Amino acid sequence: MLQRPAAGAIAGLSPTPEQLGKRARRAWLLFAGVALAIIAAALYGAGLYGRAVEVDALAAQGRTDANLKVALLRAVLENPRALPLLLSEDQQVHDALTARTNAAIDVLNRKLEGLVSGTKASVLYVTGTDGLAVASSNWREPTSFVGNDYGFRAYFSRAMQTGTAEYFALGNVSKRPGLYISRRVGSASAPLGVVVVKMEFDQLEADWHEANRPAYVSDEHGVVLITSVPSWRFMTTAPLAGASLAEIRDSQQFGDAPLVPLPITRREPLSAGVIACTMDTSALK
Prior knowledge:
Blueprint: H1 7-13, H2 17-88, H3 91-99, H4 102-117, E1 123-128, E2 133-136, H5 154-162, E3 164-170, E4 177-186, E5 191-199, H6 202-210, E6 216-218, E7 224-227, H7 242-251, E8 264-271, E9 274-279
Antiparallel strand pairs: 1-2, 1-5, 3-4, 4-5, 6-7, 8-9
Helix pairs in contact: 3-4
């Protein structure tokens, strides 16, 4: 025989309004926690994606800017680089180095003077095998190179040994930095001297500076040679090893420059070929 449950038993199995409220609150709290976690993950992912996109854009802009600067530098060097080659075969250069007469040297001085005014070169000069300057484009000036001894300079010794050389240094007389491009006159067995052209980069550096993006060119030792930030010149991309520092000091390549590291305090690799740097912005002024 079927029996009908007592009303009290049914009431004991049904949740009370208070219990329903607690369950609802727990469900909403769980939902809110899950939602917050999803939102946080989405925001974090969006932040990583946005950062990656921004880094890629900056890297692309940096590569474009660097390629443009390289192209400008090559354009500046193109014509002056040809001068030593042409002059090493010039008859008036050979005459001045072999005859050493006042007339021959005067003709060469005037020739060099005329050539430098039509190029972007700073100065042109010719030395004998002893390193003494025989003729120079600045022969009229108080700071004329004529008679100065450049035998200790690497661009002279290397040109005498191998035929050609390129060497960035602080001028021994002018105290101005520049690239020296040299070529031997005559054969290795019968040399007559060396032709040298000096390039300075004031205008190029000024153009780079206008872009408001720090830029520099460094040598194999990490010494900054050309830069849009004047105070960075002859600083280093990393501390120099003792042997390298001693070699540079002995050569007088950069005069009394302190050769201290650039004001870049932290380097963080971000991706292939991209490094985030922290620097002292006061050095940019």
